[in-house]
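Teaching note: in complex prediction, the entire set of molecules is handled at once rather than each chain in isolation. The prompt given to students was simply: 'Predict the structure of this complex.' The entities are:
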Amino acid sequence: MIRLGLCCIFHEEPIRFRRTTAAALKKLTAKERDEKLSGICRDNAAALAAAITYCSKNGIGAFRVNSQILPLKTHPEAGYELVDLPGGKEILARYEACGQLREQCGLRLSFHPDQFVVLNSPRPEVVASSVRELVYQAEVAEWIGADVINIHGGGGYGDKPSALLRLRDAVQALPVAVNERLTIENDDRTYTPSELLPVTNETGVPLVYDVHHHRCLPDGLSEEAATAAAIQTWNREPLFHLSSPRNGRDEGADPKPHHDLIDPADFPDSWSELDITVEVEAKAKEVAVKRLQEDLTACGIPCAWQVADSKDR
DNA sequence: AGCGGTCAAGTTGAT
DNA sequence: ATCAACTTGACCGCT
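The expected output is the structure of the full assembly:
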């Protein structure tokens, strides 16, 4: 059955994650800074618990965690360790409690580091800060039981073969906690599934197949073939991405921006019978997931995730 | 209370 | 050369 996933935030449900900026922190005293960060990290643990509970009660089987859940964690000046903040040990325990809740609910958690994580950059400082960010997300993933940290292939730099070799080498040099969760996703302007598959196969890193990106940047592989090849890369439940274009697919319109909702016609026929996670990238968030759930169910595609399902498997 | 400007970071492609 | 887009608005300071 299909496990639908919600990405990061809520549209209508009043669950909010807090954040701050390095500029705002800079204006505070050291004590004020630590207390502000501590408060945000504590509130975000509570918001994560609320998100897990919401998903579990609404048939949503997966949730993507915002990269800023511990805001500015790896910032060169504002960075910190959670346990060094006021009440840090107790906040850590709250994240570990989220992990237990996740397990009880049979929910799958993932991370999607933002665009600044580029493992194949020719600039060593960019790779170094990317690794720092991945190590931070892997640490939180460990606490809460997330099994996916998903990144893109990176830049092309006018020489994709070399760039892909750098990607492979950088992946192989990652710490185990990152490597065992890392996945790579085809994007909508640089790397297609067929370009990434040699790297994923060589490194043992699974491919997250984004069918909308594949439609924006095709490579000759059919959706069925890309789906099958991606599934082969997974040693656990495969995870794919789905979105619909805001401007439709008319000639001349940019197909890349995401729509508020998912057009059920965009759900690939070849996915109907699979046991996979499908993260829904749509601006209306949980509203879009619920709508898709109804639309797929009406088509006879089961996708309302229940706790019992995860125990029966 | 409401509103506009700002916020760590990379890369691409459209204008 | 500039800027929007990308997984995603939230927060702060001003009126």
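Point out the following to students. The two ends of chain A are 11 Å apart (CA to CA). Residues 19-24, 72, 74-78, 114-118, 121, 123, 126, 129-130, 133, 154-157, 189-190, 254 of chain A lie near DNA strand B (CB under 10 Å from a C1').
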